[in-house]
Amino acid sequence: MILVYISSQNGISKSAFEAVTYARKLDSEVCVLTCGSASEAQLSAFGQYGAQKVLVDRKIDGSDAQQLTKLISQYAQELNASTLVFTHDFVGKAIAPRVSVKLKAGMVAGAIALPEANGSIKVNVFSGKASGFVKVNSSVRIISLLANSIPLELNETACKVEEITANTGDSKIKVISVKKPDGAIPLPEAEIVVSAGRGLKGPENWGMVETLAQTLGAATACSRPVADIGWRPHHEHVGQTGVAIRPNLYIAIGISGAIQHLAGVNGSKVIVVVNTDKEAPFFKAADYGVIGDAFDVIPKLNAALVKFKAANN
Amino acid sequence: MNILVCISKSPDTTSKIAFSNDNTQFDDNGVQYIVNPYDEWYALVRALELKETLGGQVTIITVGTTTDEAIMRKALAIGADEAVRIDADPKDAYYTAMQIAHYAQSNGFDLVLTGKETINYNGSQVGGMIAEALDAPFVSLATKLEVNGTTIQLEREIVGGLELIEVALPVVVSCAKGMAEQRIPNMRGIMAARTKPLQIIAPQAIEELTNFIQFSAASSKASVKMIDADNMDELVALLHSEAKVI
């Protein structure tokens, strides 16, 4: 039996369904554990991906990893779970290592594939410049799954939502305020990302990047210099010190492709690079390249996409 | 304020990544090791800023072999007061975290800081593991940290946003961008670091819960297909029919 911990505080993300899809491929028995106030209808959606049961603790809000560790460990033991699955995001990074210590269960951090025949699991290492295969030596294992690593797969299953209360103690963390960017697709989950750098010349020119992203249903991102000089918010910065992403399609406009930037995006399945400098190092990491000025290429690409969408819808 | 900062060595960001022994080991031939950037720029520098305003002491700790002494000297040169090395070749995150937790438990700290992850294994595990072993709260991926008497206020990243939280000391925090700015050691710091003693401590017997059995270097891309800037219809057609991403 596989236990999947999911955060449902701010709605249920695509990566949560990916984690359930992943769990269902490991074992036919999948149980989801969550906390907070998501409705029964929202939670039973996990049945679409193969979960038979959703356990929800309504008394805790999920802000204290210590409480969640107690909750998760208790149910992992009661249900005799062989594997625990987390999402390798802000949630999984806060909780999974604690549960690993509590249960003395080896952890595979940032899995990008299902286990190999020998039981080892592939992860990215050296900031995406290589991959490694991790073997877990304990009887129970913990896997945190990187977003966009496995395609969602429907597996319609009758799913029961059950309310539970665990003895988790009080939260030691007091939440004072929450800041959320408005309705944008979270960058690590986006399937298509349009990213721009200093080639855009100024923050006032980002309108065309946003238009292109809208046409594609994409999230927007930027390079480090652009975030450092304040043209774009820091949460959009992808690269070694920013967010690491692995979308299906990454379009980089006016970004030269320094090794630190590549470290954050080289998990992308397809990379398109637009740059005026034909010597830009990014072309070596690209699948498709366009030599040209952003101000000329972006509107043309957008027009071509609009035409394509109109013809294919 | 007694602060413990966990540091790790990592290959310089421009290092060529290769493996030896039938791809089972990182080949560090010719590799220049640095203090893992997140540990140095964010965790260590923020710890020093807190010491400067509140008083106290900053101790850095690493689990490593004699080759780690260069990064310990660097941390001392930036301003750490004491440097501790648990004399072992770190094997997995659990092993590393349990060694540090054992030291922290016996010495008592108000605050334990780590970087958000290392740039070599990228697991983001050690901080949370130390916190669980110490039965202390853990705040991951914090971008701001202010001390307010016996509590601290932190800003941390959450899915799609930021959260401002408060928690009582002692606490373990993993530090991300925004926490502090990189500091370049000055000549006085570098000279002083040369003579500061390094404490070497024998490791505890801890098992490894995981191990890497194989590595493979990322496969390089087939050569890039260039498309004329005046022919964006072709690019769109290729993304649709060849790459199948739109």
Topology:
The complex is a heterodimer of chains A (313) and B (246).
Chain A: E1 2-5, H1 14-26, E2 30-35, H2 40-44, E3 53-57, H3 65-78, E4 83-87, H4 90-103, E5 106-111, E6 121-125, E7 130-136, E8 141-145, E9 160-164, E10 173-179, E11 192-196, H5 207-216, E12 219-222, H6 224-228, E13 249-253, H7 259-265, E14 270-275, E15 288-291, H8 294-312
Parallel strand pairs in A: 1-2, 1-4, 2-3, 3-9, 4-8, 5-8, 11-12, 11-13, 13-14, 14-15
Antiparallel strand pairs in A: 6-7
Helix pairs in contact in A: 3-4, 5-8
Chain B: E1 2-6, E2 9-11, E3 19-20, E4 25-26, E5 33-35, H1 37-54, E6 57-64, H2 69-78, E7 82-87, H3 93-107, E8 111-115, H4 126-134, E9 138-148, E10 151-158, E11 161-168, E12 171-175, H5 187-195, E13 198-201, E14 210-217, E15 225-226, H6 232-241
Parallel strand pairs in B: 1-6, 1-8, 6-7, 7-13, 8-12, 9-12
Antiparallel strand pairs in B: 2-5, 3-4, 9-10, 10-11
Mean pLDDT value of chain B: 94
Q: Return the CATH topology of chain B.
A: Rossmann fold
Counting structural domains of chain A, the number is 2
**Low-confidence runs of chain B:** none
Instruction: Compute the CA-based radius of gyration of chain A.
Output: 21 Å
The amount of helix of chain B comes to 25-40%
Order of helices and strands of chain A: EHEHEHEHEEEEEEEHEHEHEEH
What composes the largest sheet of chain B? 9 strands, mixed
Order of helices and strands of chain B: EEEEEHEHEHEHEEEEHEEEH
Largest interface: A-B, 99 and 81 residues
What is the global morphology of chain B?
globular
Structural class of chain A: alpha/beta
Low-confidence runs of at least 5 consecutive residues of chain A? none
Number of strands of chain A: 15
Indicate the CATH class of the largest domain in chain A.
Answer: Alpha Beta
Overall mean confidence score, pLDDT of chain A: 94
